[in-house]
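Structure tokens please, single chain.
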Amino acid sequence: MQKYTLLYIFVPLFFCAPVVCAKHTIPDSLQMLHIEVDGVSFSMKRVEGGVFLMGGTQEQHCEPISIDLPAHTIALSAYYIANTEVTEALWLAVMPEWEINGWKNPDLPVTDVTWYDCQMFVHRLDSITGLPFRLPTEAEWEYAARGGNMSFGCRFAGSNILDSVAWSLNNAGFRKHRVASRWSNELGLYDMTGNVSEWCSDWYGRYHLGTEPNPKGPENGEWKVIRGGSFDNGEANQYIYRREYLDPNEATNYCGLRLALTLPDEPTLQVEEEPAMVKKLRLKNTQVKLVYIASENPYYISQEPITWRVWDKVMQVEKTEKWSESVIGKTTDEWNQWLERCRKICNQPIDFASATEVATAIEQGVTYEPSVKQQKKKYWQRNTRSIQRHRKTTKNAQKWADLIGVKLKETDDPTLLIYTDNANKSHPRWIVIR
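Here you go.
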């Protein structure tokens, strides 16, 4: 018969962290849960809620790669995370029927388990303890690895010296080691860097700008995020912000798991979400960069008018003009057709910017007012001269008509009408998302 106990242990005041108001009483010291399952015990450290910059940040003193960017603001409510990776002993206490593949030391972190195996383990542990265990989200994992709101800004979890806190390619001998045999980080968490990588709950997806509270990653995907580096990774793959991903059906000898949980009565961190400063629309084999405009009615506007490159890619036509120049000379129907194609491609509520929106963006220096090409100026002058000749002819003809008492009927100048229509359809356009 499996037994467990749930104890509350508090570390000394020199580990104290800011208090978050909660429905239940939280002491001034850092709270820790101690759980025992069939004689195997493990501890969960409380991580106070807070706001941090996630991703390839400057204090890491390492050039991030594309999947680590952009650095973006994350807000997290309080949660608990295990101070060590799940050991072979704990896994077998929860899953006694599991076949052991070369497992020799109960204090070694468990590996050779898929993401779905981890879900089975967590659900079984839930039923045994009555606590809502889960895998940490990627944001929770990185915040805890950084030391939460007690962070010293280290490159690795707890130190700028890799070997002091991690089993890596430098010192591990191509094998995993007993948990908690290196130094801990600021929160007292072990092996957040090195030893074995750890499954996170998130599907892998690209980062985006803006403040996001308690993110859980994309709703679906092909790979699951793994974090922390492992015994066969060098320094370049051990930085706190470094991301990796793995097929959730794949079991490897370098990836295990760490537990997390949120108690039901934890307060939710209330954070006002900040808008992303930049959005990028992927349109076929090109993209359009939109920048946020803060106003009474905020919106995103393209940094430049629609160019021939973007037009041609969306309409799937051969190169028609200099690709870097703004599109002019299109009718309203042609523009609407182009816009509908864009909406289907990017699945975004895009529209054309109004004159006021363009003027505001130009005033804020986000975009610019394109100059009219010389060819169009000549066309304007040619039409103007034609209009002037037409009016002069009409005026002279009226003199002769007055002699016989006839008033010539004034009609709209067809040349002028052609010019006006051409002017309406020739000006550049900007994309907006309101």
